[in-house]
UniProtKB/TrEMBL annotation:
Signal peptide range: none
Biological source species: Paracoccus lichenicola
Sequence ranges assigned to domain Xylose isomerase-like TIM barrel in this UniProt record: 19-257
Gene3D superfamilies given in the database record: Divalent-metal-dependent TIM barrel enzymes (3.20.20.150)
Protein name, as recorded: TIM barrel protein
Amino acid sequence: MRFALNHIAAPKLPLPDFFAAARELGVTEVEIRNDLPDVLSAWRPEDVKAEAEKAGVTIVSINALYPFNVWGGDLPARAEDMADYAAACGAKALVMCPLNDGTKVTFDSLVGALTAMKTILDTRGLTGLVEPLGFPVSSLRTKAEAIRAIEAAGGEGTYKVMHDTFHHHLAGETEVFPDWTGLVHISGVTDPAVSVADMLDAHRVLVDGADRVENLAQIRALLDAGYDGPFSFEPFAPEVHDAADPKGALKASMAFVSAQA
């Protein structure tokens, strides 16, 4: 197996330092973000590309377009801007997250958004990574539904799904889809007091032996089924972001997962 790093794993590192830290950890694939830190508003895409090339890393995705499944308002323009930026900085894919506020979104709206987005992605040579969110309030919780919608939109050559171990567990989804999986996000939950229904991004830490969301079982299932892409660390917990030695913490988690999986 091989690892990737999402910038949220060490958000206090400036972009060049993040790229350098990845290489020092033996990682050559990274994800940049438009939320925390917002690289897109602070960096010109050509400068991001130059920094990545200098560090010897590949940008596998920009994370994320939201809410991709409600196609209206300023979303089409934001989608084009983000896709332009992704292509210019050398990113391979654009992560796409669904509306996550308790509002229902119809299957037809999901298919319509995927159809509209397909042209934007195809003209720029990008893959769309559809990431179901397992939260109870999410409008798209499972990979099975995402795949059904991708097929309905004729998007088999454009889209892959994101397998996020945290969201997979929250959604109660058991099937993995190795042929459809473009990238895997990994993060653990170790707080013994929080129920699965109440788990939030702030609970997501690096994977270790106290993990409650079955990262190791999911990773093994994906590898056994033939998935050969990277596993990208995506922890959101403040204690991870505030770590005195983020590189050391990541190194320990990488060693644990490698030894167990």
